[in-house]
Amino acid sequence: MDEALIDTLRRYVRDCDANWSCGSFGAIAEFGRSPHEDAAIFEDGLTIVTGRGGMRLIPIDDIRPIAYELPGRHPETWQHGLALCLPADRCQLAGRERLTELGPDAGALRPEDRSAILFDLGLAIGHAEICIRTADPKAVELLRGGLNRSLLSPEGLPLLREIARLNPHRVFRCSFGRIEVYQPIPDPTDKTPHGPHTHVLPRILALRRTHAATLPIPAGWVPCMTLFPPNPISNGHGGVRPFDSVQYEAFQDLWKRYGIQELVELKEDIFAAMSGQSASPCDLPPPLDRVGRALMRVALRQWQQLRSST
């Protein structure tokens, strides 16, 4: 990993408006913090811990950052992120298919958690380990009683639901990092909590995808962690906020450096057409694939915001 990328990641670790994720399609951990929340940033600049969770990223060779933009649910908004990817043959972990005890979590971010017992849920994800951690003797006993059971089978799903009621720490790991979540697991009828949280969705896991089909990840690459810089138009809760041109330009720097070149050029063509430097947007041939069509929608939304802010 080059120093420029490391510096960028360190900057966003310090940014309380940035969020991070680790995991896979159907099993994801997210880390974020509020502006007034106490946070300990470690000396490496890539590890952070709050009272609700923590995140660590270890720079290794072969990480490829891929910047992307997608239309948001609201007709004015868009999503963006920086997916940190590894080659498919370099990201594989144990891929356990059954509940497995891993022993004390020596890699825990907080010293007081390193004697707690780590269990891999065995969700058969090759590039991520979806784990829980507990020091509660009753919880450890219950989990040991379910060892070697597939939690995604009809027989295992009741235990998966029981684990949610235990409220263990959730520890999602990849080849170069982890996210830990300490705050309680919400009731299924409650809203997703702000800050660190996890999602484990058996129906989506059954699709056996490493990532959503809408993400422009080249074949042979797998996103293991993702950085979500502050969004200039979305408030992060599905709503719209006043357009922030500074945050917009900050991500465009990442887009130009780490976006897929064909998509970067497509967006430049759309903007050139919108500014009258070439044919009108109506004259541009629509992209042939779904990714290109989605980017065209993003570009038009961004163009409108840029026009309205001048």
Descriptive report:
The chain is an alpha+beta fold and 310 residues long. It folds into two domains: 1-94 and 105-110 and 166-259, no CATH class; 260-310, no CATH class. The chain has helices at 3-13, 137-145, 157-166, 202-205, 245-258, 261-274, 290-308; strands at residues 19-24, 27-31, 40-41, 47-49, 53-57, 64-71, 78-87, 100-104, 117-120, 129-134, 169-174, 177-181, 197-200, 221-228. The strands form two sheets. An eight-stranded antiparallel beta sheet has the order 3-4-5-12-11-10-9-8. It has a six-stranded antiparallel beta sheet with strand order 6-7-14-1-2-13. A hairpin with a 2-residue loop joins strand 11 (169-174) and strand 12 (177-181). Helix 6 crosses helix 7. It starts with a helix and ends with a helix.
What is the topological layout?
Elements: H1 3-13, E1 19-24, E2 27-31, E3 40-41, E4 47-49, E5 53-57, E6 64-71, E7 78-87, E8 100-104, E9 117-120, E10 129-134, H2 137-145, H3 157-166, E11 169-174, E12 177-181, E13 197-200, H4 202-205, E14 221-228, H5 245-258, H6 261-274, H7 290-308
Antiparallel strand pairs: 1-2, 1-14, 2-13, 3-4, 4-5, 5-12, 6-7, 7-14, 8-9, 9-10, 10-11, 11-12
Structure keywords:
310 residues; alpha+beta; six-stranded antiparallel β-sheet; 7 helices
- Percentage of β-strand residues: 15-25%
Strand order, largest beta sheet: 3-4-5-12-11-10-9-8
What general outline do the C-alpha atoms trace? Answer: globular
The biggest sheet, with number of strands, parallel, antiparallel or mixed sense and barrel status, is:
8 strands, antiparallel
